TrEMBL record:
Record Pfam families: Mg_chelatase, Mg_chelatase_C
Keywords from the named record: ATP-binding, Nucleotide-binding
Domain Mg chelatase-related protein C-terminal: 118-209
Name this protein carries in UniProt: ATP-binding protein
Keyword field contains Zinc: no
Secreted listed as a keyword: no
A GO term for molecular function: ATP binding
């Protein structure tokens, strides 16, 4: 009988796994995360047997494109130094991350004045809880657990929106996996507004993958 202890992925089950300076992790370690990100489980095989641990976690990762990130310059992801740094990450691994968000440097006036902006966490929590309740009432589970067929049925895109998505997939060179992830995020955005999926939700969801083409080109041929 195989005897193993759960690793960080399983210990993060139904929680958050945070990886700082993502490209600094060994590439083989990050590739192992592809299975739990897709299936929510970790399978370990040894000579004495096999064991499966639950590992349905929310992955949150942070990284700097390069030292140029500190210069405040624009489009530093396109630089040669940044491209070399990004090659440490594989396109299939990045394909499983729903939201790619670039965080620009904080303006000095905001940093110095420390003026609080935006909604409070309490208000955001109410909207999230309402969205989750809507999902469970509609399909008996959260959007993250929907398969591709059910996801497409619930989104019920119009013919014009289907054509829009086809053009977006071709332009951004998104995979079938990424397509369903875009739909899932769009559906969640609609649920946060307590409405049906519309073109604006698809556009916002696609905007969160704006680095997709850049990251894919950085990892091409690897």
């Amino acid at each position: 009988m195989i005897v193993t202890k759960p690793g960080e992925a399983s210990l993060s089950h139904r929680g958050v796994l945070f990886l700082d300076e993502l490209p600094e992790f060994d590439r083989k370690v990050l590739e192992v995360l592809r299975e739990p990100l897709e299936n929510g489980e970790v399978h370990i095989s040894r000579a004495r047997g096999q064991v499966t641990y639950p590992a349905r976690f929310q992955l949150v990762a942070a990284m700097n494109a390069s030292n140029e990130a500190y210069s405040g310059g624009q489009d530093y992801y396109q630089s040669a130094a940044s491209q070399k740094y990004l090659r440490k990450l594989s396109a299939p691994f990045l394909d499983r991350i729903d939201l790619h968000v670039e965080v620009p440097p904080l303006p000095t006036d905001v940093l110095v004045n420390e003026q609080e902006q935006g909604e409070s966490s309490a208000i955001v929590r109410q909207r999230v809880e309402a969205a989750v309740a809507r999902q469970r009432q509609r399909q008996g589970c959260q959007n993250a657990l929907l398969n591709g067929r059910d996801l497409e049925r619930i989104c019920a895109l119009s013919d014009s929106d289907k054509q829009f998505m086809q053009q977006a997939l071709d332009r951004l060179k998104l995979s079938a996996r990424a397509y369903h992830r875009v739909l899932r995020v769009a559906l969640t955005l609609a649920d946060l507004e307590q409405t049906q999926v519309a073109r604006k939700h698809l556009m916002e969801s696609l905007s969160y993958r704006k680095m997709e083409k850049t990251l894919a080109s950085a990892t091409s041929g690897v």
